[in-house]
Automatic annotation (TrEMBL):
InterPro entries: DUF8006
Lineage: Archaea, Methanobacteriati, Methanobacteriota, Stenosarchaea group, Halobacteria
Protein name per UniProt: DUF8006 domain-containing protein
UniProt-listed Pfam families: DUF8006
Keyword ATP-binding on entry: no
Residues that span the membrane, as ranges: 15-35, 42-60, 66-84
Stretches assigned to the DUF8006 domain: 5-85
Superkingdom: Archaea
Keywords recorded for this protein, A-Z: Membrane, Transmembrane, Transmembrane helix
Length: 86
């Protein structure tokens, strides 16, 4: 058997954060990963995806401000997609 199991350490670390905070962290990482591509369409599709995630996530897992962030992303991202050239 394993004497050192890292899963309880990861679990204790993740219990401090809610799902909305995790989504914001993943959104920032994905935006930083998409910037070198130089495509506003990719960035806007990314924002639409995370906007849907924020809106669909139950309120018990992500507080209300994250829902508002999702609504804002769903309003702004399609405008960016339509105005993007590449």
């Amino acid at each position: 058997m394993l004497e050192f199991a890292p899963l309880p350490l990861i679990d204790d670390f993740l219990l401090k954060y809610n799902l909305g905070q995790v989504f914001v962290f993943l959104f920032v990482l994905s935006v930083l990963a998409a910037i070198p591509l130089g495509s506003r369409k990719v960035l806007s599709l990314n924002a639409i995806t995370f906007g849907l995630l924020f809106v669909v996530t139950p309120a018990s897992m992500a507080p209300l401000p994250f829902k508002f962030l999702g609504i804002a992303l769903l309003v702004i991202a399609p405008v960016l997609y339509v105005t993007a050239r590449t």
